[in-house]
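hiii so my PI (J.) wants the whole complex modelled not just the main chain, which honestly fair. so below is everything: two entries, each one labled with what it is. i double checked the lines twice but i was tired so who knows lol
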Amino acid sequence: MTLRFTIIGISVGAASLAAIGAFAQENSGLAEWEKVYAVFSHPRCANCHVEDESPRWSGPHYGATRVHGFAIGRGEDGFGNPGQRCTTCHFETNSPKLHGPPGAPHWHLAPAEMVWFEKSSAEICAQIKDPARNGGRTLEEIAVHVRDDALVGWGWSPGPGREPAPGSAQETYEALVAWADAGAPCPGE
Amino acid sequence: MQITINGNVRELDVDPEMPLLWALRDVAGVLGPKFGCGIAACGACTVFIDGQPVRSCVMPVGQVSGAVTTIEGLGEPDALHPVQQAWIDEQVPQCGYCQAGQIMSAVALLAEIPNPTDEDIDKAMSGNLCRCGTYPRIRAAVKRAARSMGEA
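here's the output for the full assembly
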């Protein structure tokens, strides 16, 4: 009888430990995700991850966030409209002048399904994990893309007068990997 | 560095960080593109790189990766580009300062959309400002050019 209770006790204890471990892993994963969300929701990233036709401008001198001037639009390929392509003004490097156009290689809008602008942490998290809305990428591929892509990297080096995204490309890569290793948990709404 | 400007290969002794507009105007002596704002916000400096419009006041000359075409390269005085002719026929310019950039953007638009709507024109040309307010005549000239190019 004593042995039976002992075995039951060990079983219950192991189950509790497993539950506590899973809880701790989810919590650590969510903490890593929040680092990623702080980057993806930052204006340097979200202003060009929109679901409509217009990239956004924001910064202290604009007051509220506004649509990009000059009637700039997504165009059929995300690289702007005929006559006003993104690369009409955005070159390989930032303009050194205050209010001059920022620049990085292959400047363009993210596809509309990759929307981050004005989306919640839960919504962005779900999008990042959905291959139908993340460019068919694995989480590892997303992490590498964030670390290595030159246009993504612009977010941490945005030129004069613009606040950079928090952290760095390497730190965001590491947060994405740690989040994926923890089971890629998403926050609730 | 070597740059092809309006079909001519030019050797320019310039800093690669120099804006293309400076290289064109001050070094190569090509004066059609104009300096307006210096931050790609007015369009007066618009030229083509391999047929695509760029604001030359911001583009570092070292990043030029194709042939440059300016307003001088569109047509000859006795054989104007249809857009240039439409600009004359509609008597578009007042002071004229922005018009080289306006015409370059119109040519770029018509190359991709031969019969543009008002919305197409707005999307293509809202980055070209005209302090004289010639926009109604610009719109008419774009449509006139579209008709004449369609008949050609």
